[in-house]
Amino acid sequence: MISLARRTARQSPLLAIWYLFLFTLVAVGVYSGARVLIEGLRVTNLTDELPWGLWIVIDLSSIALGAGAFTLSAAVYVFGLKHYASIARAAVFVGLLGYTSAMLALFVDIGRPDRFYHPVLYWNPHSVLWEITIAVMFYTTVLVLEFTPIIVESTPLNRYSLARRLGHRLHQVMPVVALIGMGISMVHQSSLGATYGILTARPVWFSPTAPVLFILSAVAAGPALTLLVTMISGELMQKRMVPEDVLQGVARFIGFASLAYLYLKLWSWMSVNYYSHVPGHAASIRILNENTPYDFTFWWGEILMGALAPAIIFLWPRLRRNRYMLMLGALMVVAGLVINRWNVTLSGLVVPLDWSPGVLDVFPINTYEPSLIEWGVAAGIVGYSWLGWTLGVRYLRLYPNAVRVMRRRAVTRPAVAESGEQPATAR
Amino acid sequence: MSTQNTNNNAQEQLLTRREFVMLLVGAGMSVALANILADPLNPLFQKILGGNIDRERYAAASTDKPRWGMVIDLSKCIGCEYCVYACQATNDVTDAMRWNVHIVDQTPTGDIFHMTRPCLHCNNAPCVSVCPVSATYSREDGLVVMDYDKCIGCRYCEVACPYGARSFNWEARGDEPNPRAPEWGTPEVPRRPRGVVEKCTFCIHRIDAGLAAGLIPGVDPAATPACVNICPVTARYFGDLNNPESEVSRIIASTATFRLREDLGTEPNVYYIPPEGLAI
Asked: What is the CATH topology of the domain spanning A46-353+364-368+397-426?
């Protein structure tokens, strides 16, 4: 272990610093998580009036950002777009990291982590959260199944014929697994939106479009994260991870998904804010705008940065062919999604309930700022997923079609590097 | 004072005979009243409370499917918070997690009124439908109760309840005494562990035990929620909404009542008599 660390440090000091950073994040997370488990949720800034916060945002975001797995697997195995297989494996890995991150966040967030298995024993089919829990469990199993062949192939396990046969058999049934996965995914990605959308008590949330907005944004942001990490890893490892036309295809897909999301989002906004005046909803929006930067983050963060700008980048061929614009666009979609999940979760809770029949505003506005421990756990989860990705991309065959390329920086003569890139872009 | 000024002889006496006798009678009556108030099972108290019920007619009209409900008369409530404290003592609730709450609100005419709220025990309870482990469930008799052994502490019920009627155990409780006991009652149920949500039960333990003992909830104090028994102005009534002879049914049939946020479709089993000046 120490010698491995020494070798890494000698070969690439930057990588060593990166690992050190990630291990620090994980250590902070382990410490904070332990504090939560020992002392209970009183170490958070959550209250009975605002019982969900940063960890639920992380849970929702990581599940949505893991949606690249079902989207791209479906492209390959259900819609027969075989050449996307070159990115589907990485998407499955991102999905696996996303779903396990969500599980970590939930494990810390629930008051009784020792009872995490209760949804399996005590069913309530009428609860969207029960349905989500069961679906997330099944889908994580699907992801593990999808991922097993990659593990077998990339590790010493490959020496054993039994493991190889198992991996091969799994690979054969993959279309079925992917189809099941797509079904489960579509159901629970939208149910996460329904978690908020069905609550009549909170006018900002109560909306028939919430489930659809959740799945549309996930379908855009999941592949965007996969695209982003693929490109960043490619840059750093000086490899072309996937053929250029696959990158372009995924980018175009994200562009269209963003447009669809934008379309429904604007109509949802207009129907309750512009074309009609629902007292509870209007009052809630007023409270949010007076007390939080909701208006700004909604229009600039969610709409402009999270959907409109990336849609332009991804659908305008000239912009799309610039790989830095591509990365920027993907980053914007991902950031827009996280802002959206934060806004959705907090907006409904900041506005107080109104059940007293009198005329006074008797209930105070609920404020929330995550506590240091909450940030610590968040850092740990982020560290876990980044560490998982770093190790995965270095030691597993995530990109079966990856080829080594010379980038401009790596060679003295730029012309050579340019020509090295040409064949892929030309296709 | 005026007697003393006009009658100088009286200055030598501390008390006249009449004053002494009246004091004695007053003290005796206070002791008797305190005894009655301190012991809900006192037959005299029962008679005062159950005076409006004809037990025979009630028994004849009762079915095997009761639906427990409450009527809260906001025109009577004086905001003394006795209901809050009695509930805290009886159900061993901390000050931060009050199952009953009291707030001061105002009518459109500008008069203040006192609003108190237990759990409303909705027929279409959002907390029941969202619970991922069925830890919160509706009983046949309308009570919305919790199985604290199932609850995983996800707090979705807190998010879903339109009335803020749920409290989460953010921290573990030791065996420190309840601040409201014994002045306001003695704890009758076990403390809840850290990490689960809890809520008002309409003193379910009293209802179930009372029914088994042949008592009538809402009539016999031993089978009636603590908040109803304690109310000094009788602003709270409890009983079987399915029995037309119960006091709650008779009030609802004869008086204008409303329920909180009927627009949400939760169908609460707690009815309110509005304060003066509040149109419903």
From this structure: Formate dehydrogenase/DMSO reductase fold (1.20.1630)
